[in-house]
Design brief:
CATH superfamily of the largest domain: Carbon-nitrogen hydrolase
Strand content: 15-25%
Largest sheet: 6 strands, mixed
Helix content: 40-55%
Radius of gyration: 28 Å
Number of strands: 12
């Protein structure tokens, strides 16, 4: 050993000295790897929790970008990036849709364990495959580049690549067999609708690109600052801030400009929010008690309204647990309400039709004229997987019978003649519950001439959860994308009126028994770019992605 600061002289002393130095380096490396390995699960759990807090009902939107910065920082060191992204989104989706457990345990009689497994491995895991793919692809790109020595242009190329890759993966998630717009980044902005103005051009994918690319730039800014590259850090930090502020100010300008557009038609709408929970709806003969509630609320809708515009009363999805089209008592009551109020009525109801020896059941919406005649009917096309549509292992029952619903064939426009528009009709695009998240259905309704979007729903299955607000946030996005006003109708959940920019003008709470009324204004028809060329932005992102692959051999 060294004595008085002198180096070791014997063979054994030299060997001990060398071994100790190697040991110290080995210890340092193992400690570093341990910190990195410990950092990865922290990034996964923390970023997924922050993501959940950004969505309804918490709606802490400011957490959205920090969540993605943390996600990217953890992904850089992940040894299995697909698993990293898959677990991240599985946790997020499981937390976002935790309300699924309530109907499974309370109404479908599944155990809490079975419900949790379903929640984690079906609701959480299946949509997460695309985010796992996103993580795998960008991880390879990140690891192939020296951030600190690369030019700013190359840094922007990374940001662009991350943004377009996410847009494609999010789009794939939405159009998948179990795809839906729940969890779409753009839906968080229903509480800050100025940001939704850009979706009139790009659709929700444009906002997703903005958030992910801004997060990537701020993440690069953090990395540069940490390594003393202060000029690059400032550049990467300023641009996303300017971009976000610019999009917000653009939204303010567009909304203000819209107020000067000519109003072509008006329609007075009354939403019947009966506040009847699901257990009350399912009791034997409950419809006889519930119909009295709907009757009393409906008869008091338009007593303080003038006859300046057409009137419409709307009941929610499956308002009564019977087929109203064949029930003479209910039809007589509807006729009485129409005669007293002068209003058209849209009513959600189960229905059935004979198909040889079989009877097919549908989740339907009916349009009644003021004289009580059935004018039109829409049968729900996109049935809720596992709950309305039979899936192996799960036995599902409808409101009428312990059989699954059958899907409808085509989308439908309810046409209501406007009393003060020289024979003109108001075209109402009707869709039911879960269908608000099916963008292709809404696009088809707009192409058929829809001027007002009406979403009827029965949220009583999910009690006082965030499900109702999450569905409202999707309707808000749809209204902004197509520049059309919207109405959300729920008998136990959030009912609301939404303007063409996604702003929620008026809303109920979940449980109250009330009539929610508003005059929806139909402006002169100026189709948005998105309504004319749906998913054009996704197509551009796809072409850019292919260009990156061919030019730089990223994958």
């Amino acid at each position: 050993m060294a004595i008085n600061g002198q180096p070791p002289t014997s063979y054994n002393e030299k060997s001990f000295f060398i071994f100790s130095k190697k040991n110290r380096q080995k210890y340092f490396n193992s400690t570093k790897n341990l910190c990195i390995n410990f950092k990865i699960p922290i990034c996964i759990f923390t970023s997924s929790i922050m993501m959940r807090l950004a969505y309804p009902s918490f709606s802490i939107v400011i957490l959205l970008i920090p969540a993605w910065i943390l996600f990217l920082d953890g992904l850089k060191n992940a040894k299995k990036p697909f698993i990293y992204g898959f677990i991240f989104n599985s946790l997020f989706s499981t937390m976002l849709c935790s309300w699924v457990i309530h109907p499974m345990t309370d109404y479908y009689n599944y155990s809490i364990i079975s419900s949790l497994l379903f929640q984690i491995f079906v609701i959480g895991a299946i949509p997460s495959l695309s985010i796992g793919l996103f993580s795998k692809i960008i991880h390879q790109r990140i690891n192939n580049l020296n951030f600190y020595e690369s030019s700013i242009i190359k840094g922007f190329n990374i940001v662009l690549f991350i943004g377009v890759t996410f847009v494609i993966c999010e789009w794939l998630k939405i159009i998948s067999p179990l795809g839906h717009s729940l969890g779409h980044i753009a839906t968080v902005f229903y509480v800050i609708p100025e940001f939704l103005a850009i979706t009139r051009f790009t659709g929700g994918s444009g906002l997703s690109f903005m958030i992910i690319s801004s997060s990537a730039m701020l993440w690069l800014s953090y990395l540069m600052f940490e390594n003393g590259k202060y000029f690059k850090s400032i550049i990467y930090g300023i641009i996303p801030i300017v971009l976000i502020i610019g999009i917000y100010l653009y939204g303010i300008i567009i909304i203000k400009k819209h107020q000067s557009r000519k109003i072509t038609q008006k329609i007075d709408i009354a939403i019947i929010h009966a506040g009847i929970d699901q257990s009350s709806r399912q009791r034997d003969l409950s419809y006889k008690k519930n119909i009295i509630i709907y009757r009393n609320l409906s008869l008091n809708t338009f007593e303080d309204y003038g006859i300046e515009s057409q009137r419409v009363i709307i009941w929610p999805e499956t308002a009564l647990s019977i087929n109203i089209a064949t029930n003479s008592e209910v039809l007589k009551l509807i006729k009485h309400i129409g005669e007293k109020t002068g209003a058209w009525m849209i009513i959600g109801s189960p229905s059935y039709c004979e198909d040889g020896e079989n009877r097919k059941f549908y989740n339907s919406a009916f349009l009644f004229s003021p004289d009580g005649s059935i004018i039109d009917q829409y049968d729900k096309i996109y049935l809720l997987p596992f709950f309305e549509k039979r899936i192996p292992i799960f036995n599902i029952f409808t409101e009428l019978n312990k059989k699954p619903y059958s899907p409808g064939v085509t989308s439908n426009i309810f046409r209501i003649k406007n009393i003060n528009s020289n024979g003109k009709y108001i075209n109402i695009g009707i869709f039911i519950c879960y269908e608000v998240g099916i963008s292709s259905l809404i696009h088809g309704l707009v192409q058929k001439g829809a001027e007002l979007l009406v979403n009827i729903s029965n949220d009583s299955w999910f009690d006082e959860s965030s499900e109702s607000l999450q569905q409202l946030s999707i309707l808000s996005l749809r209204c902004a994308e197509y520049g059309l006003p919207g109405v959300r109708v729920s008998g136990y959940g959030i009912a609301a009126f939404v303007d063409p920019f996604g702003r929620v003008l008026k809303a109920s709470n979940i449980k109250s028994r009330m009539v929610l009324k508003a005059c929806q204004r139909i402006h002169e028809n100026k189709p948005t770019l998105y309504s004319c060329f749906k998913d054009w932005f996704v197509l551009i992102c796809g072409l850019l992605f292919i260009g990156f692959i061919l030019k730089q051999k990223i994958i």
